[in-house]
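Help needed: design a sequence for this.
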C-alpha cells in the first residue's frame, strides 16, 4: 500500500489515531465526492472556493471558465490546498462536550498547470462527465471549439495529502452512562431524488442511470 510521507503540512495533530496517509483511503474519499473546496491566497487575501473535481491517478483535475479567478490562479502554478468532506452521521452523546460527527475528510496539497493539448483536454472533460453519470459522455453532444476555448482544465499533481475519519458511537464518560437521554448515531446518507425533466424537452427519453456505485469507505476501526 502506497502512503504519502508525513510532513508539517499534512500531519494530523488533533486525534492523530484517526489519520490515514495511504493513497487508497484518501482517493476513495476524493473520488466519492462531487465537489471539493480549494484554498488559495491571492493578492494577500485568502479565498476558499467550491468547485467540481476529478482524479487521474495521482493528479487532481479542476474544471472551470477561462475567466475564473480560481482557474487562472491555479493554472499559474501557485500552491493550493484542496479539501473534501463527507458527513456520515450526527453523534449524540449524553453530555454536550462529547457530541460529535462521523465524517470522512481529506486534505491535499499541490501546484497546478494548465492542460492545453486538445486531446488531453477532451479526455479530461470526458473524465469529469463520466464521474457525474457513467455513460453520459457517449449520449450527449461533445464540446465544440468555442466551448473548449472558454474552458480551463487545470492538472494538480498531488504532492502530499492526508485523511481523517471518525466512525462509531459517542465516547461518553462512564459517570454519564446512566444519564436519562437517548445516545447514539443518526446516520446521514446522500441519495438522488426523483428526476425532474427539463421543461423544454422535445420528446420523452429514457432517464439516465442513477446506479452510480457507492465507493467503499474502507475498513476503518470504531474510534
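Sure. Designed sequence:
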Amino acid at each position: 500500500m502506497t502512503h504519502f510521507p508525513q510532513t508539517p503540512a499534512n500531519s494530523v495533530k488533533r486525534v492523530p489515531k484517526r489519520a490515514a496517509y495511504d493513497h487508497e483511503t484518501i482517493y476513495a474519499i476524493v473520488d466519492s465526492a462531487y465537489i471539493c473546496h480549494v484554498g488559495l491566497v491571492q493578492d494577500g487575501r485568502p479565498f476558499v472556493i467550491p468547485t467540481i473535481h476529478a482524479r487521474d491517478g495521482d493528479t487532481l483535475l479542476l474544471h472551470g471558465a477561462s475567466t475564473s479567478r480560481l482557474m487562472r490562479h491555479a493554472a499559474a502554478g501557485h500552491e493550493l490546498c484542496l479539501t473534501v468532506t463527507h458527513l456520515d452521521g450526527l453523534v449524540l452523546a449524553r453530555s454536550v462536550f462529547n457530541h460529535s460527527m462521523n465524517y470522512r475528510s481529506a486534505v491535499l496539497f499541490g501546484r497546478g498547470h494548465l492542460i492545453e493539448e486538445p486531446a488531453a483536454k477532451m479526455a479530461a472533460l470526458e473524465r469529469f462527465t463520466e464521474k457525474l453519470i457513467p455513460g453520459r459522455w457517449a449520449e450527449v453532444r461533445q464540446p465544440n471549439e468555442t466551448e473548449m476555448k472558454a474552458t480551463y482544465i487545470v492538472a494538480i499533481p498531488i504532492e502530499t495529502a492526508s485523511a481523517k475519519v471518525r466512525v462509531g458511537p459517542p465516547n461518553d464518560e462512564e459517570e454519564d452512562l446512566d444519564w436519562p437521554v437517548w445516545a447514539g448515531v443518526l446516520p446521514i446518507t446522500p441519495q438522488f431524488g426523483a428526476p425532474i425533466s427539463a421543461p423544454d424537452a422535445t420528446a420523452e427519453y429514457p432517464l439516465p442511470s442513477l446506479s452510480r456505485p457507492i465507493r467503499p469507505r474502507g475498513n476503518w476501526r470504531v474510534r
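Confidence is low (pLDDT under 50) at residues 212-223.
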